[in-house]
Design goal:
This protein is of the alpha+beta class. It is 28% helix and 36% strand. It is built from four helices and seven strands; from the N terminus they run E-H-E-E-H-H-E-E-E-H-E. Strands 1-2-3-4-5-6-7 form a seven-stranded mixed beta sheet. A hairpin with a 6-residue loop joins strand 4 and strand 5.
Length: 233
């Protein structure tokens, strides 16, 4: 579990976009791995309370990038990684015996169970962009109340499914996605909060997240508000 950390500003710079990160907070990143029962219980991943404020970078720092060169470098890196992995796999084949083949089969089945049954929960996300460099200060952002991705049975109930078992071998993998209150807002003549204290920023950003029970939110500032349940086969 990782709690209460800031995201490095260099992460945004790696995206090569004309924005700076004014504030960031990651409340909790949790990965629950039942090591003793990996073959019968799901791996659960959760991300909670992520607050980020972005602002435009100074025009003097903007750089024009040659995306053709960037793509060329990425292609070279991909080729190098592919060749390196091929050499590793070839070396492993020469070392493997029958016992190792059996072990690899067991590892493969266990990996399939883990991937099939991983459960994901994301809650309380707010990413905000503030601009004070124009004549009218404005803010826009995206908020998320809750997102869940779960493995389900035929009745679309949350369930651990073992498709390596003969009973479920031909069963399709069923995933249910629950999306609660995904919102996008735009505020003209906004009150900017990026220079407030960290505690005050987090309180204000959490209060702005669209939910079913908050009445103080100015819902007319939201241009998009979505809740949905999606079933995937």
């Amino acid at each position: 579990t990782i709690k209460g950390i800031s995201i490095k500003k260099e992460v945004i710079k790696m995206l090569n976009m004309p924005v700076n990160m004014k504030f960031s907070h990651l409340g909790e990143l949790k990965l629950d791995i039942p090591f003793k029962n990996l073959g019968s219980k799901p791996v659960e991943a959760s991300l909670t309370n992520v607050f980020i404020i972005l602002e435009p970078a100074d025009k003097d720092t903007w750089e024009v990038s040659d995306y053709a060169k960037i793509q060329s470098r990425i292609s070279l890196m991909e080729l190098y990684i592919a060749e390196y992995l091929a050499k590793i796999m070839e070396a492993r084949k020469q070392l493997e015996g029958k016992d190792q083949e059996e072990d690899k089969g067991m590892v493969g089945r266990l990996t399939e169970k883990i991937i099939d049954n991983i459960q994901v929960t994301i809650r309380n996300i707010h990413i905000r962009f503030e601009n004070k460099k124009t004549s009218t200060k404005y803010a826009m952002g995206i908020t998320l109340d809750r997102l869940e991705i779960n493995t389900c049975n035929k009745q679309w109930e949350k369930k651990y499914i073992d498709r390596t078992d003969e009973k479920f071998k031909l069963e399709p993998l069923r995933k249910k996605l629950l999306l609660k209150n995904l919102g996008i807002y735009w505020i003209n003549d906004a009150t900017l909060i990026g220079s407030d204290s960290p505690d005050r920023i987090m309180t204000k950003m959490e209060d702005m997240i669209l939910t079913d029970y908050k009445s103080q939110i100015k819902k007319d500032e939201y241009i998009i508000a979505i809740s949905a349940i999606t079933k995937l086969l």
